[in-house]
Amino acid sequence: MGVRTGLVSVTFRQLAVEEVVEVAAQAGLSAIEWGGDIHVPLGDLPAARKARALCEDHGLAVAAYGSYLRAGSVDREEIRTAVTTAAELGAPRIRVWAGNVGTADAGVGDRMAVTRGLAELADVAAGAGIEIAMEFHRGTLTDEVDSTITLLLDVGAPNLTTYWQPPVDLDDRTCLEQLEALMPWLSTVHVFSWWPSNNRLPLSGRESLWRPVLDRLAAEPREINALLEFVADDSITQLATDAANLHSWV
């Protein structure tokens, strides 16, 4: 199936939905992950339908609904609303956060709450044929690989997957080791080049990381999303350059 390239809409929070679609299409990308904060707010079904229709008009797929739900602290009504919104959007998965505390600071109760929350999210989403995918992110229980895999195994839902993105200041070799460990559950990679810390570089600034990452994704027998995010200076011109590099490496 190979690698499907795309854009995370929150990369351009300042742009209207129509403009985000135009930018992605002009860059030759194939899909958009729509954010629940600005472009497709939770429960805003007309916005979801509009984004879906615009994507269809431009030959773009919807990669995911990027919700900001935090497993363990959302009620069932919010979950149902997120699933309904994602279904209207035509999104095959909903991105969620694994709680609001990092692994090192989490107690047993924190982990139990997040595990139960993920199980409930996955259960409700399964009824609509939708995946739940955890963001791989600091300050949550997916801030490192072992904790992420523990959540995936403890929940044990076939529609629970994970994202991956390069953690701040992690070297290329360790990033590739993380990617390999998560590969059985991986649905999406958020693609950006930060170095050092969260200084945004052109994507080519970490070509030594992204070429082997993309080679590894391409070796999988299923489709995995590689979605551009956090472009330098929030620049549309930079996105076009980054997308061209991404495509050449894929």
UniProtKB/TrEMBL annotation:
InterPro entries given in the database record: IolE/XylAMocC-like, Xyl_isomerase-like_sf, Xyl_isomerase-like_TIM-brl
Residue ranges occupied by any Xylose isomerase-like TIM barrel domain in the UniProt entry: 21-164
One Pfam family this sequence matches: AP_endonuc_2
Keywords, in A-Z order: Isomerase
One Gene Ontology term of the molecular function aspect: isomerase activity
PANTHER family referenced in this protein's UniProt entry, alphabetically: HYDROXYPYRUVATE ISOMERASE, INOSOSE DEHYDRATASE
Name of the protein in question: Sugar phosphate isomerase/epimerase
